[in-house]
Specification:
binds flavin-adenine dinucleotide, 620 residues, five-stranded parallel beta sheet, six-stranded antiparallel beta sheet
Length: 620
């Protein structure tokens, strides 16, 4: 077998899929080395993609030319736009996926990809010479060489799974742990920590009494993730139920055998996604917690008990489940468990996701302290693109916080070095009205095209859409059409004369203009709106642009200021210890994280506004 590549990606999880997909499409010769080629993209936990802010990440990955949106649409069985009752900034698409189909589609996509070789093996060594990457060595002592390695090993590094006080080594259910890599990198000087996450039990469909639950259907019509997917279908429904005080009583009887409460698990877990025992313990005054029963696929009877993540002993899990309406006779397929694993503190990364310690070594995904498929995929695509740019000797591709949630995610990781699993939230973005899920293409598709990940035809189509939107915006402003009027007018015009007239009167009344002005508007600008009518998605976007015009302008102004500071670069070897007027804490933090710009420095906890003024003066 050929053993010389441009890039080696270790791990076929969500990060590794994107990294190998984009780097091979950008023309590099890539090896994806993973333990099992048929489990690539397997959802370790919830069979779903997207969700609050995570849906934004998927749309951004798609706009850059990544794979996740395509795969989610193919394997999707239940689509929903979350937070519809709230502002547009937080609308977030989410879909349930078929857990068995998703890895099949991953395999189909990657195995056909030009320049990409999938190698089924476990990596035991990363080969480094004079602080530069040379390649890897597998458990079977096979050596593969490349100047770049992207490590995406997920929860597998020294993974240990816990149910009650019983622990087993493993990367996730039924898959072995990866034992060597973190120890080796630790010897190289990388700071390694321990984190924890958990998953709920799965139960048999036939053992549930769905009459006692509430149906939670998908949206009609369902909305796909990928810009070119024409149709997706809701093929399942989910069911809602809830815990009660008896459930909580039962769970409390198992606290003395909880690996978390007894201190067996040392790693920190995700605060925002706690286990059921954690919820019962921390929110003692709450007498009920919501549970969603989610089918794991079309060809399986396995039901995922969302909201009941636990590592309590199996008999307590069963007893607790039996107190929940609909689950009184639930039969377990497999119990919930917690997993503890190694991660690398992400201040050891550059914003390109290359490590500061070893040239050519990139980290992406859960090993950087994040949690979630989408967060992993977002890092994977950025690491893949940056690996190629490095090989070409081009500057790295860094998304700003003002451009994308991906930018917010990586900037937070590198600057704030979270001590607990990091999950993206809309509240973390300063300019969230501009970083909406519906306009990811407008924000990022230029980059995807520049890197050759978006085809010319697609890019042309996108540009035409943007021109149409711009024109419709200008026309709407000219005729003072209000956002709410655009929808009924556009959807009805040309259908029936009566409807048309009713609508026109309605618009005139709402917009406080006379009917002639509305008619004037229609006669003078028909073609823009007739075109726009073909795309409800664009109508919605036009409404947002008009409705939030003032706020959007204000955010764009703030971004100008923000970018000024981002453009004030700090030399790579800058010696902060020389500036005596900086506080000691600031000097320590700045020397550790080594920010690339004044803007980045200002976001490091412990660096005060006065430290930043001093630094700015010094840099000038
Ligand atoms: P993974 O998806 O873990 O993939 C890692 C890949 O690397 C695998 O293909 C593995 O085979 C391969 N690999 C590892 N080591 C080697 C090696 N040495 N050689 C070759 N291949 C290797 N996320 C949430 O957002 N919410 C949750 O509630 C949640 N719960 C979870 C519960 C459990 C039990 C687990 C295991 C994970 C949970 N997650 C949860 C996390 C989610 O699964 C991850 O965030 C996501 O899968 C990370 O993607 P990744 O690409 O970084 O790694």
């Amino acid at each position: 077998m050929d053993n010389q590549f441009d890039i080696i990606v270790i791990g076929g999880g969500h990060a590794g899929i994107e990294a190998s997909y984009v780097s091979s499409r950008m023309g590099c010769k890539v090896a994806l080395v993973t333990m099992n080629k048929y489990t690539m993209g397997r959802p370790s936990c919830n069979p779903s993609i997207g969700g609050t802010a995570k849906g934004h990440l998927v749309k951004e990955i798609d706009a850059l030319g990544g794979a996740m949106a395509i795969l989610a649409d193919k394997a999707g069985v239940h689509f929903k736009m979350l937070n519809r009752s709230k502002g547009y900034a937080v609308w977030s698409p989410r879909c349930q996926i078929d857990k068995d189909l998703y890895p099949i589609y991953v395999y189909q996509l990657l195995s056909k990809q030009k320049n990409l070789t999938i190698i089924e093996a476990t990596v035991k060594q990363i080969l480094i010479k004079h602080n530069k990457i040379c390649g890897i060595e597998t458990l079977e002592n096979q050596k593969i060489f490349a100047p770049i390695v992207i490590l995406c090993a997920g929860t597998f590094l020294n993974g240990v799974m816990w149910t009650g006080l019983k622990s087993t080594p493993g990367g996730r259910y039924n898959e072995p742990a990866s034992k060597y890599l973190s120890n080796l990198l630790n010897e190289y000087g990388f700071e390694v920590g321990r984190l924890k996450t958990g998953t709920p039990p799965r139960v048999w469909r036939h053992s549930i009494d769905f009459n006692k639950t509430e149906i939670s259907p998908g949206d009609e019509p369902p909305q796909p993730f990928h810009r070119n997917t024409r149709i997706v279908k809701n093929r399942i429904v989910c069911y809602a139920t809830a815990t009660n005080e008896i459930t909580h009583e039962v769970l409390r009887t198992g606290f003395d055998q909880s690996p978390m409460f007894t201190g067996r698990i040392k790693g920190t877990g995700p605060r925002y996604c706690p286990s059921i025992e954690d919820k019962v313990n921390r929110f003692a005054d709450k007498n009920s917690h919501k549970i969603l029963l989610e089918p794991e696929g079309l060809f399986t009877d396995s039901i995922y008990v969302n909201g009941f993540s636990t590592s309590l002993p199996v008999y307590i899990q069963i007893k607790g489940l039996h107190t929940i309406p609909g689950l009184e006779k639930a039969e377990l397929i497999r119990p919930g468990y917690a997993i503890e694993y190694d991660f690398f503190y992400p201040h050891q990364l550059k914003l390109s996701l290359e490590t500061k310690l070893v040239e050519g070594l990139f980290f992406a995904g859960q090993i950087n302290g994040t949690s979630g498929y989408e967060e992993a995929a977002a890092q994977g695509i950025m690491a893949g693109i940056n690996a190629v740019l490095k090989l070409r000797g081009e500057p790295p591709f860094i998304l700003k916080r003002s451009e994308a949630y991906i930018g917010v995610l990586i900037d937070d990781l590198v600057n704030k070095a979270p001590e607990e699993p990091y999950r993206i939230f809309t509240s973390l973005a300063e300019y969230r009205l501009l970083l909406r899920q519906d306009n990811a293409d407008e924000r990022l598709m230029d980059y995807g095209y520049k890197f050759g990940l978006i085809s010319s035809e697609e890019f042309d189509k996108h540009q035409k859409k943007m021109e149409l939107l711009k024109k419709a915006y200008q026309e709407s402003k000219l005729y003072k059409i209000k956002p709410d009027d655009i929808n009924p007018y556009l959807l009805k015009v040309g259908e029936t004369p009566i409807d048309e007239m009713t609508n026109l009167h309605y618009i005139a009344k709402r917009s406080n203009i006379n009917l002639n002005e509305v008619l004037n508007f229609i006669n003078s600008t028909p073609e823009v709106f007739v075109e726009l009518k073909k795309s409800p998605e664009l109508i919605e976007r036009l409404q947002i642009e008009i409705r939030y015009e003032g706020y959007l302008q204000r955010q764009r102004k703030e971004i100008e200021l923000f970018i000024q500071n981002e453009n004030k670069k700090i030399p790579e070897n800058f010696d902060y210890w020389k500036i005596n007027s900086l506080s000691k804490e600031a000097r320590e933090k700045l020397s550790k994280i080594r920010p690339q710009s004044l803007g980045q420095a200002s976001r490091i906890p412990g660096v005060s506004a006065s430290d930043i003024s001093i630094l700015a003066l010094y840099l000038r």
